Automatic annotation (TrEMBL):
<feature type="transmembrane region" description="Helical">
    <location>
        <begin position="124"/>
        <end position="144"/>
    </location>
</feature>
<dbReference type="GO" id="GO:0052621">
    <property type="term" value="F:diguanylate cyclase activity"/>
</dbReference>
<keyword id="KW-0808">Transferase</keyword>
<dbReference type="Pfam" id="PF00990">
    <property type="entry name" value="GGDEF"/>
</dbReference>
<keyword id="KW-1133">Transmembrane helix</keyword>
<dbReference type="InterPro" id="IPR043128">
    <property type="entry name" value="Rev_trsase/Diguanyl_cyclase"/>
</dbReference>
<feature type="region of interest" description="Disordered">
    <location>
        <begin position="326"/>
        <end position="364"/>
    </location>
</feature>
<dbReference type="Pfam" id="PF05230">
    <property type="entry name" value="MASE2"/>
</dbReference>
<feature type="transmembrane region" description="Helical">
    <location>
        <begin position="63"/>
        <end position="88"/>
    </location>
</feature>
<dbReference type="InterPro" id="IPR000160">
    <property type="entry name" value="GGDEF_dom"/>
</dbReference>
<feature type="domain" description="GGDEF">
    <location>
        <begin position="197"/>
        <end position="329"/>
    </location>
</feature>
<dbReference type="InterPro" id="IPR050469">
    <property type="entry name" value="Diguanylate_Cyclase"/>
</dbReference>
<keyword id="KW-0812">Transmembrane</keyword>
<dbReference type="InterPro" id="IPR007894">
    <property type="entry name" value="MASE2"/>
</dbReference>
<dbReference type="InterPro" id="IPR029787">
    <property type="entry name" value="Nucleotide_cyclase"/>
</dbReference>
<keyword id="KW-0472">Membrane</keyword>
<feature type="transmembrane region" description="Helical">
    <location>
        <begin position="100"/>
        <end position="118"/>
    </location>
</feature>
Length: 364
């Protein structure tokens, strides 16, 4: 950007010099400052640990040069104002607008220095040739700036979208964040109220998770939570939505699912979590208690719905943990959960029968 800006400005200064009896020194100064300086500035910035700071210094030198050019052009109003305006707008474009005072100082210093050396006669009106030489600067600079702005806006929009998506995901467990999950649950409950769509939710709490933290440390605890998130996601149907409710508690919204269907999702999750193994800690075992609650017309809010599932979860904890308990048909009435009758093949619900064979692909 500097190379093109300084180069095009140099063209205007050269056009102005062509109308004056300028000596070789001013031609050389114009050529070096317009064509060589931008590359020196670039190399200087690249070699510095803090490019912003070195760019600040470069911009001060730019301003000094621009000040010199204004005096060299015999204060011609049109080219001087164009070059100054573009120079100042570039400074703010680079994010240096907070430090405008040193730039103005450098500009004035450049003007004063060159005025003392050249003692130019004021030529307020620029000759036609100089005015024409301004065209490439104005046109190309405007095009370049608008292209860069368009690019920046595109990047910004992309990053905003990424931020929005990231905000929906719990970074540790990679399931949805509580807020986003809650929003989805609210929509599902509304759809149940309007269209009687069947939806159920699971509240999953890891049993004795504190012990894992205490015994193996919080880093391992985090690793376990990460694996739990991953494994829960692997058990979901395509339209189920898992979220992290907080700490070691997860929620799953099972869309188009009666309590019985959600129960099987819960069963899959519970069995899958029981198979998690960590290579470094082969004795570490995970079990989860799960409360299931189908959406009910009497649930006015997600909070009531979750409360029903939570009540079932507490019953699972009370019943010895590693259990799945459905809140039952009257789930909105607290403390009235009913254990779903288990199919004969699902005897693994018995906590005693939980020891699963180690599967290599589940060892992390
Ligand atoms: N490593 C880790 N631990 C967490 C995180 N969030 C919460 N915890 C811990 O998870 C534990 C949750 O404990 P509780 O749910 O109260 O109890 P519990 O030990 O799981 O026992 P029960 O739920 O009664 O089976 C606490 O010790 C928290 O410090 C986290 O992000 N990382």
């Amino acid at each position: 950007m500097r190379a093109s800006y300084m180069g095009l400005c140099g063209l205007v200064v050269a056009a102005s010099l062509a109308y004056q009896p300028a000596n070789i020194v001013w031609w050389a100064f114009t050529a070096v400052s317009a064509l060589v300086w931008p590359h020196i500035a670039y190399l200087h910035s690249c070699r510095q640990a803090d490019p912003f700071q070195s760019e600040y210094l470069n911009c001060l030198i730019d301003a000094l040069i621009v000040g010199c050019w204004v005096a060299l052009m015999q204060w011609s109003l049109l080219p001087s104002i164009c070059i100054l305006a573009i120079s100042m707008s570039d400074r703010s474009y680079l994010g240096l607008k907070q430090r405008w005072l040193p730039f103005v100082g450098a500009l004035l210093a450049g003007m004063g220095l060159m005025a003392a050396l050249v003692q130019p006669e004021a030529q307020w009106l620029a000759p036609l040739g100089v005015q024409i030489s301004l065209l490439p600067l104005v046109i190309l600079h405007t095009a370049y700036t608008s292209r860069s702005t368009r690019r920046m806006l595109k990047t910004l929009a992309k990053q905003n979208l990424q931020l929005k998506l990231l905000g929906r995901i719990d970074p540790l467990t990679t399931v949805y964040s509580r807020d986003y999950w809650w929003k989805m649950a609210r929509t599902a409950l509304r759809q149940h109220h309007i269209r009687q769509e069947q939806t159920s939710l699971l509240v999953i709490d890891i049993d004795h998770f504190k012990r894992i933290n205490d015994e193996y440390g919080h880093i391992v605890g985090d690793e376990v939570l990460k694996l739990i998130g991953l494994n829960i996601r692997q058990c979901l149907r395509s339209h189920d939505i898992a979220g992290r409710y907080g700490g070691d508690e997860f929620t799953v919204l099972c869309k188009n699912a009666k309590a019985e269907d959600a129960y099987f999702v819960a069963l899959r999750i519970r069995d899958k979590l029981a198979q998690i193994r960590l290579r470094e800690y082969p004795k570490l075992r995970i079990s989860a208690s799960i409360g299931v609650a189908a959406a009910d017309d009497s649930f006015e809010s997600v909070a009531t719905w979750i409360k029903a599932a939570d009540t079932a979860l507490y019953s699972a904890k009370d019943a010895g943990r590693d259990q799945i308990i459905d809140a039952g048909p009257s789930s909105h009435i607290p403390n009235s959960p009913a254990t779903i009758p288990m199919p004969a093949s699902k005897t693994s619900l018995n906590p005693v029968a939980q020891e699963q064979p180690v599967k290599d692909d589940l060892t992390y």
